# Entry
Amino acid sequence: MFEQIQGLPIHVLVVHAVVVLVPLLALLAVAFVAVPRWRRRLDWAVGILAVIAPVTAWVAVESGEALTDALVARGFQGPVLDQIFEHSRYGDILFRLVLPLGIVALLLLAVTSGHPRVPKLPALVTPILSVAVVALAIASLVYVVLTGHSGAETVWGTTL
# Structure
C-alpha cells in the first residue's frame, strides 16, 4: 500500500507534504498561542493542519519503511544504508512530535473556543497547553529540518 504510485515511490512524493504542512502547523499554532486576537481567524487552519500534518508524517514514515525494505532487498548496503537508517530515525522522532502537537493544538482550540459544551477548566489549563504547543512546535521544526536534510544528503550528497 505504501510502496508506489505510477512507478514512483510514495515516499518521495509525500515528504513534500510533510515539509510544507508540519512547519505550517507549527507556525500557525504558535501564532494562535502568541496572538489571541488572531485566534478566530486561525482556528480553522490550525484545526485542519492538526489532523492532516500528523497523517502525512505517518504516511511518510510508513512509505519510508517500505522504500527502505525495497532498497535492502535490492542489495543496498554500507554507508548509504547507514544514512537511510539515520534518516529513518529522524522521521520516527518527527512523527512522535507532530502527533502530540496535533493533539495538544486541538485541545487548545477546544479550551479557548468558548463553546458552551466545553466544561469550565482550571485557569492553568490554557497556559499549560500553550507552552506544550510552543515546545512541540519548535521541536517539530527542528526535526523537519534534520529529517529533510538527512534525506536530501542521502539522495543528493554525492551527486553534484
